[in-house]
Amino acid sequence: MDNLPKSGSDPLVNRPAKASVLPILLSPATLRPVAFRTFTKKHNLTITSSTLQLLASFVGKNCGSSWREAGLADLVLDEVAKAWKKAGGGILVDDGQGTSLKQILQSLESNMSGGRIFWNTDSKLSQERTPQFSTAIDAGVPDSIRFSNDDDDDDGSRVAIADRELLGSEGYEPEEVSSRIAIRRFIKVIDAFDQPRLSYNFTKKRFELCLNSPSLFPAASQRVSVFRQRYHLIHQRLLRNESFQSKAYPTQLPGLSSTSVNTKGFYKLSSIANLLGRGGTSHLLLGLLSLSPTGELSLTDPSGTVRVDLSRAKAVPKDGAWFAPGMIILIDGVYEEENELRGSALGGNDGVGGIIGGKFIGLSIAGPPCERRDATLGIGGQKDDRSLDLEGGFGLVDFLGVGSERAQGARMRQIETECLRINHGEDKGTVQNSVVIMSDIFLDMPQTTTALRNVFGHYSSNSDTKLPTLFILIGNFVEHAAVAGGGGGGSIEYKECFDLLASVLSEYPRLLVESSFVFVPGDNDPWPSSYSAGSVTAVPREPIPDLFTSRVKRTFKNAHNSKVSDVREPTNTAIWVSNPARISIFGPVQELVVFRDDISGRLRRTSLVLSDEIEPQPSQPGDDNVLEHDVDPENVQDSSIRRPQPRNALEAGIRASRKLVKTILDQGNLSPFPLNARPVLWDYAASLDLYPLPTAMILADSEADPFVVTYEGCHVMNPGKLVPQGSKGLARWMEYDISKRQGTVRERRF
User: Angle at the Cα of 9 (from 6 to 11), degrees rounded to 5?
Assistant: First the structure.
């Protein structure tokens, strides 16, 4: 008992004002699943019936009726288990002669308020239990509200459970945020190589942390795991969809053909292995569309592979999304069985787990519907006190390392409300809550320098309360591939481009101090450009090396040193991140994904042409008399894939942007392509997942027109090129409002 703090010694916590909790009578049987998950699965401990009775009384008394909905029981039991192990308790948790469970509960009860434990960050033991961390952009956050990290879990647990809630030790109140702390101190930029590597365990239906060290040269089995993880994420997402859940009464469902809907009015998925011996029957399949070694289309799921015939398939909705090899799609159709396996079978790998005989004739094809962010995190409707109900989902999972929705969501929403002054009835335009986004900043072109001065000068003339919170500068930073020979120049020329950028930034020291800058590389930036010569590189890719950015960093440092202020500001506001990268705004409340890739062009090159997309050519007089040898095969091929032309260019741009956004978000991945079309680092493939859906996404695509599209609550933006091709004296960028969660395309002549 020497390791256990006594109630009469120095307090572990600052005791805040006790919040009233209505005690309840909690039965041990009701608490047993939560206790088993925390003590046995996470901490490898065993509890007795008497211990369970003691814990049920403690949770019912101190957590009240919110013990389940707010996740209070999970947090309290987790603290009890950690205190038991630190006090030297054995594997059997019992109030015996050694470690006293009652004394642990008594110590925790004296430090609880409103069902939560308030730790004192000034205490030595508390600092050991909740180590603090900060990044360059949130270095100015007070210690009382920084994110905590459960690095003290020494039990080898693989479950990605949230950290404790943000708690202040200095009587910090949310009402003080707007006057003391800038919004950008609650912004954290997350590199793809620092993002938690989570994998979905489909047997236990939960996310787990990958404990093995990542490598650029992993085992070959990891390549299979990349596609298996994508399949299981989409499969469990579909099973949570109402259209794939059994109902007590039949309903009329739109979308796929009626062959896949059973008598109870819901869709039912079939595995490919279940097609054996069921020729002539209708099925709905979910699988990975790919090209077989013989050049035929095939569909693969964990149970096997089958050839597919999409010559008569129609897209649902029509022309609503792209379908290309490498994507996971839904196909509704009829299975035709063959006696002998032929065509795509190589090496005799047939049957369950391999290629089955016959082919699947697709009648309709669709992408898997995506799931809204609030449904994934289990966020329900808003209450009268502006708090949110939590209804299942993965609210306990910390996807970005900034805390989970259940642990920190409510607290950070209060801080967001005060920072953005939503409840005070003040003008939202009087606070710095905008993000400026620029893409394809070709520093080797003279027009780019003039455009940058025009944009920076426009914002530098604003008052302090209207300065942007964040500037996001996205590559490519040169027009041609650098350090690859040819017209891109070498390393000296590339460094001179960033030296020129440093000279431009030095003209606006006010922006360098009051705003933060994030730099995201493109495919033409080193070092990957040195061997790719401008073609696609493996993603995620690392930031631009410090060798080229030293003068830019020195410019930011000089700007901060020249400013004398009593307000503590983040000192390093130039952040160089990977591609893709994620930006967390107010913890788990808002998530912004930044990705630079010419996805639209790759989709046009690799996508399928379905039968309903082919426009029949009008017959001309005398066509019946044309001989077969007079027909040019190339002209026939061109006419067969000709698509109907829209009425005007604006309609075509809107349709193309919606089609692109729906394809990417439905796939739930930033790179839904085969590895030969878009290489992926296998051990870091989880950083490309879009699950849960982000609040907003910056999809910088130079081959697509600038657009702003909202789909299933996700706001997708494409800023386009900073200096549009063919334009004279025009700068174009995107401006994202954090409070409204909406982007706007800006243009300015120079």
Answer: 95
User: What residue has token string 């953005």?
Assistant: 420
φ/ψ of residue 500, rounded to 5: -65, -40
Question: Which region holds residue 572: left if phi is over 0, alpha if psi is between -120 and 50, else beta?
Answer: beta
Q: Name the residue among 194, 231, 230 with its Cα closest to residue 214.
A: 194
Domains, the chain, with CATH or none: 1-124 (no CATH), 242-366 (2.40.50.200)
Bridge partners of residue 366, in order along the sequence: 330
Phi, psi of 218 (to 5 degrees): -75, 180
pLDDT given for residue 272 in this prediction = 94
Question: How do strand 470-474 and strand 581-585 relate by DSSP bridges?
Answer: unpaired
Per-residue DSSP letters for 486-533?
A: GGG--HHHHHHHHHHHHHHHTT-HHHHHHSEEEEE--TTSTTTHHHHT
> What's the confidence (pLDDT) of residue 488?
66
Task: Please tell me what DSSP assigns to residue 590.
Answer: E
Check residue 17 and give its pLDDT: 54
Tokens matching residue 321: 């999304």
What local confidence, expressed as pLDDT, does residue 734 receive? 96
Q: β-pairing, 707-711 with 714-718?
A: antiparallel
**What pLDDT is stored for residue 111 in this prediction?**
81
Question: What's the Cα-to-Cα distance from 90 to each of 1, 83, 96, 292, 615, rounded to whole Å?
Answer: 13, 12, 10, 56, 74
Q: What is the DSSP letter of 527?
A: T
Residue with the two structure tokens 């609650």: 186
Helix axes 72-86, 101-109, angle to 10 degrees: 130
Bond into 317 cis (ω within 30)? yes
- Written in H, E and C, the secondary structure of 696-722 is EEEEECCCCCCEEEEECCEEEEECCCC
d(CA 104, CA 117) in angstroms, rounded, equals: 13
Asked if 365 contacts 323 with a C-beta cutoff of 8 angstroms, the reply is: yes
| Strand (E) or helix (H) holding 239 | helix 221-239
Torsion angles phi and psi, residue 637, rounded to 5: -65, -40
| 58/52 Cα distance (integer angstroms) | 10
Contact 362, 313 (CB under 8 A): yes
Rounded CA-CA distance 441/449 in Å is 9
Residue 518 identity: V
Whole-angstrom Cα distance, residue 128 to residue 141?
20
In order of 1, 12, 432, the CA distances from 100 in angstroms are 8, 18, 52
Could you give the 3-state DSSP secondary structure of residue 582? strand
Q: Across the 750 residues of the chain, what is the mean pLDDT of every consecutive 10-residue run?
A: 42 50 87 88 86 90 84 88 85 73 85 75 41 34 34 35 32 40 83 94 92 91 93 94 76 53 75 91 95 90 94 91 96 86 47 78 95 90 49 85 90 86 47 87 94 95 83 94 78 94 95 93 92 87 94 92 60 86 95 96 92 60 40 37 51 90 97 94 96 97 95 96 90 95 93
Q: Which of 146, 183, 174, 162 is nearest to 38 (CA)?
A: 162
Tell how strand 92-93 and strand 46-47 pair up: parallel
**Identity of the residue numbered 104:** I
Asked if 358 and 248 count as a contact pair (C-beta separation under 8 A), the reply is no
